[in-house]
Amino acid sequence: MNKSINILLLCDIVILGDVMRRDKINYYLDIAESVAERGTCLRRNFGAIIVNHDEIVSTGYVGAPRGRKNCCDLKYCMREKLKVPRGERYELCRSVHAEQNAIISAERRDMLGSTLYLVGINYDDGSYVENARPCAMCKRMIINAGIKQVVVRDTKDEYTIIDVSEFIENDETLEGVLGY
């Protein structure tokens, strides 16, 4: 059973007196989108932030491990060269994913019960990544980090909330499912 919740906001601002404010979820997604701008991937760049008790615990973006050259520096992506489909053959990828970088930059005790906000941007045209979801390896790290939910941006004002228990209950590794 898919417990993901798609949310379409009829109004993406909160009006308080004469002050108009962005709703809290989109506020955090906007920050994650800014973090994605640091990404170095030539296919898709993601930004992730982990928030607990209304405080940002850590951030992460797509990039090669420290000291290694990024794909943007090399001017090519091996997975793109080999026409590897999205969500497959990550051993060929030079990058550490945004979710992974955010997790390894935080203490587990600060992530227990937290929310991870995730935004993906396509390199070619700057559009949002359709049906963006954490990959199988990131799901495992999210589970073990103690993160409670993942919020993924679908459009500038729409997002999907995923309860991490869904990653546990729907273990695609038992069925040999590839991709997202």
Radius of gyration: 16 Å
- Uncertain regions: pLDDT < 50 for 5+ in a row? 7-11
Return the average pLDDT rounded to an integer: 89
Instruction: Give the termini distance in whole angstroms.
Output: 16 Å
Give, in order, the helices and strands. Answer: EEEHEEHHHHEHEEH
Helical coverage, percent range: 25-40%
Q: How many strand units?
A: 8
Q: Number of helical segments?
A: 7
Largest sheet: 6 strands, mixed
Strand order of the largest sheet: 1-8-7-6-4-5
Helix/strand structural class: alpha+beta
Report on the structure:
This protein is α+β, with helices and mostly antiparallel strands. The strands form two sheets. A six-stranded mixed β-sheet has the order 1-8-7-6-4-5. Strands 2-3 form a two-stranded antiparallel ribbon. It has helices at residues 24-36, 71-74, 78-81, 98-104, 108-111, 136-145, 165-169; strands at residues 5-8, 13-16, 19-22, 44-52, 55-61, 115-122, 149-153, 158-163.
